[in-house]
Design goal:
single chain, alpha/beta, six-stranded mixed beta sheet, two-stranded antiparallel ribbon, 8 helices, 8 strands, about 55% helix, binds zinc ion
Length: about 270
C-alpha cells in the first residue's frame, strides 16, 4: 500500500510537472507570438464626401471623360499594402470602403488597436500641370513653404478650435516620435525608389518633414506618402496601372518589414 501510495504520489507529481510544462510552453509561445506580431495601421486618405485630389481622365476613342478621385486610388493601394503585410503583421485599415472618416477618428483607431506605426496613403495634385513625382513625409516641425501648402490640403478637415488643440498636441507628440518617424520614412522611400523610380520614370521628390494632424494625433511613428500626381496627365496613367500599384504597395510593405527588423525588441506602445 505504501509502495502503491508512493507510486501514485510520484505519478501525481509527474502529471503535475507535465501539466506545468505544457502550460509553460503554451504561454511562452503565446507571449512570443503576441510580442512579435507588430501592429500596423494603414490609412487610405480621404473617403466618402471627401474625394481628395480630383482629376479627369480623357478617353479620346470612346469620347469619354472619367472623374478620378484620390480617395479611390489611396484605398486600392492601402488594401494591397495590407495584403502584403498580413502573413507577418497585424495590419489594419482606417477605412475599408468609400466612407467619410474624420482625421481624429482615424488617429483614435491607432490607440484602440495599439498600433506600432501609422502609414497614411495619399496622392498629390497641383495647379501646375507638370507637377510630378512621389514623396514621403514624416511627422516633424519645419518651415518649408511648399510643404505648408500640402499640409493645408491634407489638414483641411481639422478646423477652428479643434485645429488649435491639434496643434498643441502635435507639438507635444513630435519630439517623442520624430526620430522613429524619420527612420521609417527613409526606409519606405528607399524601397519605393527601388521599385518604381526607374521602371515608371518618376521624379523622386524626396523625404520631407511635415506637420499633418492625422500623423500627430496618431501619437506614434508615422509617415504620409504621396504616391504621385493625379493632376499630371502622363503620371495618372501610370498610377492607375495595376502593376504600378502592386509594386508601390510591395515597396511600402518591404520598407515596414525593414523598419521592424531594425527596431527589434519591445514594441513602441
Ligand atoms: Zn490627400
Amino acid at each position: 500500500m505504501i509502495l502503491n501510495g508512493q507510486k501514485s504520489i510520484q505519478t501525481l507529481k509527474l502529471s503535475n510537472m507535465n501539466k506545468f510544462l505544457t502550460y509553460f510552453v503554451f504561454f511562452s509561445l503565446l507571449y512570443v507570438s503576441c510580442a512579435s506580431a507588430q501592429v500596423v495601421l494603414i490609412d487610405p486618405g480621404h473617403g466618402g464626401e471627401d474625394c481628395g485630389a480630383m482629376a479627369y481622365q480623357k478617353y479620346k476613342k470612346q469620347k469619354k471623360v472619367q472623374v478620378i478621385c484620390e480617395k479611390d486610388i489611396a484605398l486600392i493601394i492601402a488594401k494591397k499594402v495590407q495584403k502584403y503585410l498580413r502573413p507577418d503583421f497585424n495590419a489594419y485599415l482606417t477605412r475599408t470602403i468609400d466612407s467619410t472618416v474624420g482625421l481624429e477618428k482615424r488617429a483614435n483607431m491607432a490607440d484602440k488597436i495599439r498600433a506600432d506605426i501609422f502609414i497614411s496613403i495619399h496622392l498629390n495634385s497641383s495647379k501646375m500641370k507638370n507637377g510630378q513625382g512621389y514623396e514621403t513625409f514624416y511627422l516633424s516641425n519645419h518651415n518649408d513653404k511648399a510643404v505648408k501648402k500640402i499640409e493645408q490640403v491634407e489638414n483641411k478637415n481639422a478646423k477652428g478650435e479643434q485645429a488649435i488643440i491639434n496643434k498643441i498636441l502635435a507639438d507635444l507628440v513630435i519630439d517623442r516620435v520624430a526620430p522613429q518617424s524619420k527612420r521609417l520614412a527613409t526606409l519606405l522611400h528607399k524601397e519605393i525608389s527601388k521599385n518604381i523610380k526607374k521602371k515608371y520614370k518618376l521624379t523622386d521628390r524626396g523625404i520631407k518633414p511635415a506637420l499633418f494632424y492625422v500623423l500627430a494625433l496618431s501619437k506614434r511613428p508615422s509617415v504620409l506618402l504621396e504616391a504621385g500626381f493625379v493632376s499630371n496627365e502622363r503620371e495618372i496613367k501610370k498610377i492607375l496601372n495595376n502593376d504600378f500599384q502592386n509594386k508601390y504597395a510591395l515597396a511600402v510593405a518591404n520598407g515596414i518589414r525593414r523598419y521592424f527588423k531594425k527596431n527589434k525588441g519591445f514594441p513602441f506602445f
